[in-house]
Amino acid sequence: MLSIETQEENGHTILLLKGEVDASNSVILDEAITKVVVDGSNSILVDGAGLEYISSAGLGVFMSYLEDFQEKEIDLKIYSLSERVYEVFKILGLDQLMSIYPNKKTALES
Amino acid sequence: MKHQMKISCQTAALSELRVFLKKTLGELHLSDVDQLQLILAVEEVCANLIIHSHKCNALDFIQLDIKQNPGKLIFEITDEGKAFNMLDYEVPDLNKVKGDKRKGGLGIILVKKIMDEIEFDSTRGTNTCRLIKWFQS
C-alpha cells in the first residue's frame, strides 16, 4: 500500500510518501514525479518519513530521473528516511548519487 | 525452523510475501536493518520470477522454503518458469544504469550484496534458487 500526497511550499514541491513501494505500485511514484515535472517544478522534495519499505522497483524510479534532472537543473532531494530504508539506498550506493538529508530543515538549507 | 509459502505469480502477492517473511524472521531476533534486507532480497528474486519468468500469470506459483541450519539461514525459491540464473547475470555499473535512465537492473545488485551465498540449479524444468545468509547463532 502506497499513498503520495503533494504539497507546494515556498517554490518547492513536496511529495509525502506513505507506505511501501514495490513492483506492484512503483508506477504510482513514477506518475507522481512525472506530474510534478510536467507542472513545472524545479525543486522536488521527497519526504520519506512515512516510507516503510522500498524495493528496487521504487529505487529504479528515482534512478531513471537523475540524468534528466541533472540536465534540466531540477533539484531532487530526499529527507527523513528511516535508518532501515536509508540502508537500502546505501547498499546500492544511491546515497552517493542522490541528495539525501536527515530532515526537511537540512534539505532546505543545502 | 522450517517454513514455507506458495506465492501466486502476480505482483499483488509481494505484500503478502513480506508479511510472511516478517512473521517468520521475527522469531530470529534480527535487527530491523537486517530483517528488512533479507525480506528485500527474497522479494527481489520472487518479483523477478513473477514478472520475467511467469509474465505475471496468477495461475503460476513459486514455492518458498525457509530453513534454519546452524549458522545459516537458507531461502529456497523454486519455480517451473523460464530459468534465470542470476549468477550468470553481469551486474551493471550504477552510473551506466543512471546514464541509460533505466528503471531495472538494481534488484539483482541488491540480492548479491545482501546475501552471503547464492546457488542456482535447473533440473527437468524445475528451477531452484538458494539464497544463504550466514549469521552468528
Automatic annotation (TrEMBL), chain A:
Lineage top rank: taxon: Bacteria
Domain STAS: 2-110
Gene3D superfamilies: STAS domain
GO molecular function ontology, one term from the record: anti-sigma factor antagonist activity
PANTHER family per record: ANTI-SIGMA FACTOR ANTAGONIST TM_1081-RELATED, ANTI-SIGMA FACTOR ANTAGONIST TM_1081-RELATED-RELATED
Family: Belongs to the anti-sigma-factor antagonist family.
The protein's name: Anti-sigma factor antagonist
Automatic annotation (TrEMBL), chain B:
SUPFAM superfamilies, alphabetized: ATPase domain of HSP90 chaperone/DNA topoisomerase II/histidine kinase
Keywords: Kinase, Serine/threonine-protein kinase, Transferase
Domain Histidine kinase/HSP90-like ATPase: 10-133
Keyword check for Transferase: yes
A Pfam family of this chain: HATPase_c_2
CDD domains attached to this UniProt entry: HATPase_RsbW-like (cd16936)
A molecular function GO annotation: protein serine/threonine kinase activity
PANTHER family per UniProt: ANTI-SIGMA-F FACTOR RSBW-RELATED
Protein name, as recorded: Serine/threonine-protein kinase RsbW
